[in-house]
Design goal:
The chain is built from two helices and no strands. By secondary structure, it is mainly α. The relative contact order is 0.05. It has a domain of about 30 residues. The mean pLDDT is about 80.
């Protein structure tokens, strides 16, 4: 097999172009948000459910007076 400088240079240029494209794609992916909105919403929903459960436990306890007046 003969060594051809033209083909070698062409392959090297294609390889460099592919590497540049791959680096650009990685840069663009790094700039995207990492689904923080979904995690934040799930965290807030969890806090809301815990607070609701705590209020329901206080409401459900027998023998305790209600903390609010019904206006009667």
């Amino acid at each position: 097999m003969n060594f051809n400088v033209y083909h070698y240079d062409k392959l090297a240029a294609e390889r460099r172009q592919g590497l540049l494209l791959e680096m650009e794609q990685k840069r663009l992916l790094a700039r995207l948000p990492h689904h923080s909105m979904g995690r934040r919403a799930a965290g807030r929903l969890g806090i809301l459910l815990v607070a609701l459960g705590t209020r329901l436990e206080k409401f459900d306890q027998p023998g305790k007076a209600m903390a609010y007046d019904l206006g009667k």
